[in-house]
Design a protein that fits this description.
Elements lengths: L1 H9 L9 H7 L6 E9 L5 E13 L12 H4 L4 E11 L12 H19 L3 H7 L17 H12 L11 E3 L2 E13 L6 E6 L5 E4 L9 H13 L6 E4 L16 H22 L9 E6 L1 H5 L7 E13 L5 E11 L6 H9 L2
């Protein structure tokens, strides 16, 4: 905002650079959390109680609470569950989503507790998670649109060689290094927001698709171009995608892993509607071109009332220096059930992270 105001004042581009110290004082950040997780289970590993408490900070001026405990409400089946978030207003900058919503630190606490429970019960941590797989969303009672966490856990265990793991910590050494293996489940909700897009057929046989999306380097431009080309049935060379301007129409922000689903739906709908319009002209583009606008707001309202989430399982082999406490990750495997993958390269980059 400051850069935009300054640019308007001086009538030329303005760039604002912050020092490392200013980064902690002037921009949003992930709020630190204090979390407490308590689990109760039968001897066979079936959960009876899940309790997850989180304390986090916010600024004194702006209310904010991150979704630290949200995943806990629907990850595992238990007849009794309680999650709470307490927020402390302090004289600090307002926190916000940092790289993604706040499910990550909450899942770390939950999955750490599940591992400790597996150790106390003498159970395989993978089997403990599978044994507590819910048939429906424990929080809302709604059926899942899809839920393939068990498949991720089993596939990951097979690929990782989980059957050769050390059943107890601290029993395998290589010199001064302690070696160990671990597993954790992961979750992210399906965020899909209303969006609009414009598809246009030009007289020269090319197509132009416009949407007010933003590419932060995550590959949105690549994915949306593919979606449009697939819907139109044309090679990429005949298609031009325009993004990055609010004047291109209503579109949600980039974040929360909602871009491809939200923008792609509108792009696909606009392109298919354009083909229907072209059929009315006998497949011939009229003078001046042909343009169609599509909006997904009503489509979202008509969606079935289901619980929509994505799931994954991570497996890691790490080593810890017994003298210094240094930690090294030898290998890591992630298996994810994330729906249809539009572009394997950009999706892989998202899974690996920055």
């Amino acid at each position: 905002m400051l850069a935009a105001l300054a640019a308007r004042a001086v009538e030329r581009p303005v760039k604002i650079a912050l020092t490392r110290q200013q980064m902690f004082q002037l921009i949003p950040y992930r709020s630190p959390t204090i979390q407490r997780v308590r689990l109760g289970a039968e001897r066979d590993g079936r959960l009876t109680v899940i309790q997850h408490e989180s304390v986090q900070q916010r600024s004194a001026q702006v209310p904010f609470a991150d979704q630290t405990v949200s995943s806990t409400r629907m990850m595992y089946a238990a007849p009794h569950a309680r999650t709470t978030v307490k927020v402390a207003p302090l004289d600090v900058m307002t926190p916000a989503w940092f790289r993604a919503p706040g499910h990550t630190p909450g899942m770390f606490a939950l999955e750490s507790a599940v591992d400790e429970l597996a150790g106390a019960l003498g159970m395989d941590p993978v089997e403990l998670r599978i044994r507590n797989e819910p048939e429906h969303d424990p929080e809302s009672g709604k059926p899942f649109s899809s839920r393939n966490l068990v498949a991720c856990l089993r596939e990951g265990a097979a690929r990782f060689g989980w059957e050769r793991r050390d059943p107890a910590p601290g029993i395998r050494r290589e010199g001064r290094w302690l070696l160990g293996t671990g597993v954790a489940a992961s979750h992210h909700p399906d965020y899909t927001f209303p969006s609009s897009a414009v598809a246009r057929a030009e007289e020269d046989g090319t197509y132009r698709v416009r949407i007010g999306a933003a590419d932060l380097g995550t590959g949105a431009r690549t994915a949306l171009t593919q979606v449009a080309a697939d819907a139109l049935g044309v090679p990429l060379s005949r298609l031009r995608l325009e993004i990055g301007r609010a004047s291109l129409g209503m579109a949600p922000f980039a974040g929360g892993s909602l871009g491809t689903a939200s923008w792609g739906w509108a792009v696909d709908k606009a392109c298919r509607a354009l083909l229907k319009e072209l059929d009315a002209y006998g497949g011939v583009v009229p003078d001046g071109g042909l343009e169609v606008v599509a909006d997904t707001a009503e489509d979202l309202e008509r969606r079935a009332d289901l619980s929509r989430h994505t799931f994954g399982a991570q497996f890691a082999q790490v080593r810890v220096d017994g003298d210094t406490g240094e930690i090294r990750v030898d290998r890591m495997l992630g298996v994810f059930a994330a729906g249809r993958i539009v572009n394997p390269h950009t999706a892989r980059s998202q899974f690996l992270g920055p």
